[in-house]
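ESCALATION

Customer reports they have been waiting on this structure for their group meeting. Please prioritize. Original submission:
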Amino acid sequence: MSFLLLIEQVLNGLQFGIMLFLMAAGLTLIFGVMGLINLAHGSLYMIGAFCAAAVAAATGSFLLGLVAALAGAAAAGALVELVVIRRLYDKDHLDQVLATFALILIFSEGTRWVFGSFPLFLDVPDFLSGPVTLPGGIEYPLYRLALIVVGLLVALGLYLLISRTRLGIQIRAGENDREMIAALGIDIAKLYTIVFALGAALAGLAGALVGAIQSVQVGMGEPVLILAFVVIVIGGIGSIKGALVGAILVGLTDTLGGIFLPEALKLFLDPSTATSVGSSLASMAIYILMAAVLILRPAGLFGARA
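Update from on-call: job pushed to the front of the queue and completed.
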């Protein structure tokens, strides 16, 4: 493998990891603060992608599509929290899983009813199209590089929100002792709605950004949701830092594993067998990584210790 190809694949893995972070950050906030297992988080990712594609097609503006994705996903998240999720806080996790799984079916059929069964396509904006030349003569798609920058800026914004603002103090306090902050006069119901809408907006943003790389279709959020759960298990539940580190590890492992493992096995097996076995091992690599992390640190890399 050439050095240029290696750098390109590292950047691809980083871009994939950053998009996973946007999903996982909202998911870990919701679980850390509210103690809620939200299987419908992938549906909010899908809603953001469809809102962006529909508005961008109607207006011709990619940026307006991103705004629509944020607003649509946040509004859907707030509505779901007010109508459904609010009744599940005192229930056990099985009830939460069943209710949010039902929301997946509702969102899928509702999206199909509104937008149709055929995929939509979101074009890369002209100002981000084409390649950019990086140091060393590496040519890399400008849009994918912009995704990495946007994701890192969102990570920085979340860090500042959680660590430097009054809302962030309330969120951190809610993770540790929700009864105490309620007793101190904080409107816990309003805080939960804000957190859920924020997590939904992050998922919607991820869906909109990825929608310009792949087609926008019903059910696109569920595979990403599975990887987001892997990310928060690796990083530690409730940790934004852990979500970022875990997402980058998963992105790099998934991308580089699909290239290195088949090539490495060709040293011991014939090419066709090495490719087949290597591809199978590559698809398992992130789960092997998760198992290794849990063996060494059961709470995750940055999870709270018992």
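Sent to customer with the following note: The first helix runs from residue 3 to 34.
Escalation resolved.
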